[in-house]
Design brief:
The chain is of the alpha+beta class and 93 residues long. It contains 4 helices and 3 strands, in the order H-H-E-H-E-E-H. Strand 2 and strand 3 form a beta hairpin.
Length: 93
Amino acid sequence: MRPDTVLANAKNVGLKSAGELLKGKKFRVPTFQRRYAWKLSNWKSQWSDLAKKDHRMGTLAVYEDQGEHIVVDGQQRLTTLMLILAAVRVVSV
């Protein structure tokens, strides 16, 4: 399934919590997406935003294909979130 087809016919558009989005799903970032490029200033901004009570991650556009979420937009934020969660898991064990 191609992203332009899915976006043109999107029926399941809505808000989800990070927990709902991440639960039991695999994410794939297509090769047409740019490389991960966040710098320290982006990380600092994201980290301070995460500490806020009503934090919103921002838009993450994905479509589902064969049990995977294919990332169309928001891969920089998603990658950063996954790295933070991985670090938290390592230090909590």
